[in-house]
Design brief:
Length: 401
């Protein structure tokens, strides 16, 4: 019929041409469906319907332009914010390198530096600031790290070949204990920041992480390796050279709070939990009562946060900002951060039961907004009845005795 109307001669079509002819009448988009005339073998559109379709099309074009404009404005805003952030970081790097770090002893406690510290330390100077803030009370040298690492490697060889026990200062610790510790290190390394794929077998930092953890078990056989240490060591490796990471790692774990948790000093851990609850009730009375009603004790969520210094629970960039202020304020900030998390999600948590609260706090949302998170932490007051964190903790230690 089509050929007769157009006066074209009839000739057989190839399969390819036949397919193309069929496609001529298929709408390829919503626009085509609305605007194109109907195929010749169908009745033409009524004028009213054609006008309606034309209006629909014009509305679609208007909406599409609005969306495009909105997206363009959003991209422009994101670009401006990124440029502003980069400029801010660049200025901060200059300030840290030219003013603060050369005069660390006199400037580290000034108000200006503390305010700059709160905003986050630029990644390029973060490791240096952490090292200075953590300090080196243990007087560990690069040479001592090499000695501990050599001893660790000797133990690995001895245990892998089933040889005699290595004679060393930690002779009181059996080969079985050391072997269990080394096996735990191997297992934990594979579970350290798995999404980054840099600490697992074959990754660029696998051997470095293994070396630091192994060296530490030789440096502190009384502590050994405890789950959670791998995350702390990994964060330090990302910001410091290997030997400096070991020095910071050893000194960090030697702090009272970390030593209490990693040596599982139950009495001291309970003191920390009790002090935390004092400030929990002071800052978030409604949520505190809800947790009490559901028998949700601090150990259920705090232990994992403290053991890994939030590096496992928070997005890595946010965890590093927590570390920044932790290096400035000490252990108090770890518990202030915990209260900041609870405050941020207070409305959600008050509607949950024991199981759902525990699950939520064990695996926090991955898209935590940085500024909102730190605003929540800033709103927490670490003072109860005119007593600060250290005073409350000291009072509770005395009471427990």
């Amino acid at each position: 019929e089509y050929e007769e109307k157009t006066g074209r001669a009839h000739r057989p079509l190839s399969p390819k041409q036949n397919v193309r002819k069929n496609l001529d009448f298929e709408p390829l988009s919503t626009t085509a469906l609305i605007l194109e005339d109907r195929p010749a073998n169908l009745p033409a559109k009524p004028a009213e319907e054609a006008q309606k379709h034309r209006q629909q099309y014009e509305e679609m074009v208007v909406q599409a332009k609005k969306r495009e404009l909105k997206e363009a404005q959003k991209r422009k805003k994101q670009l401006e914010e990124r440029c502003k952030l980069e400029e801010s970081i660049g200025n901060a790097v200059l300030t840290w390198n030219n003013e603060i770090l050369p005069n660390w002893e006199t400037m580290c406690c000034s108000r200006k530096v503390r305010e700059l510290w709160w905003q986050g330390i630029p990644p390029s100077v973060r490791g240096k600031v952490w090292s200075l803030a953590i300090g080196n009370e243990l007087n560990i040298t690069h040479e001592l790290y090499d000695i501990c690492l050599a001893r660790a490697k000797e133990k690995w060889r001895s245990l892998s070949t089933g040889g005699a026990e290595v004679e060393c200062e930690d002779a009181g610790f059996s080969a079985a204990d050391r072997e269990a510790s080394l096996e735990l290190i191997k297992l934990d390394i594979s579970r350290t920041f798995p999404n980054l794929c840099i600490f697992q077998q074959g990754g660029p930092y696998h051997d470095t992480l293994h070396s630091i953890l192994g060296a530490y078990t030789c440096y502190r056989p009384d502590v050994g390796y405890v789950q959670g240490m791998s995350f702390i060591a990994a964060v330090l490796i990302l910001n410091l050279d290997t030997a400096d990471a070991f020095i910071a790692f050893s000194n960090l774990l030697n702090k009272p709070c970390q030593m209490a948790f990693f040596r599982v000093d139950h009495g001291l851990m309970l003191t920390y939990f009790a002090a935390f609850e004092v400030f929990f009730e002071e800052n978030l009375p409604k949520l505190f009562a809800h947790f009490k009603k559901n028998n949700l004790t601090p150990d259920i969520y705090l232990i994992d946060w403290i053991f890994t210094l939030y590096s496992k629970s928070l997005p890595l960039d946010l965890a590093c900002r927590v570390w920044d202020v932790f290096c400035r304020d000490g252990e108090e900030f770890l518990f202030r951060t915990a209260l900041g998390i609870l405050k941020l999600f207070e409305d959600i948590l008050t509607k949950m039961d024991f199981i759902h609260i525990a699950q939520f706090l064990t695996k926090l949302p991955e898209d935590l907004p940085s500024e909102e998170f730190f605003t929540s932490i800033a709103a927490i007051q670490m003072q109860s009845r005119n007593k600060k964190w250290a005073q409350v903790k000291k009072m509770l230690v005395f009471d427990n005795r």
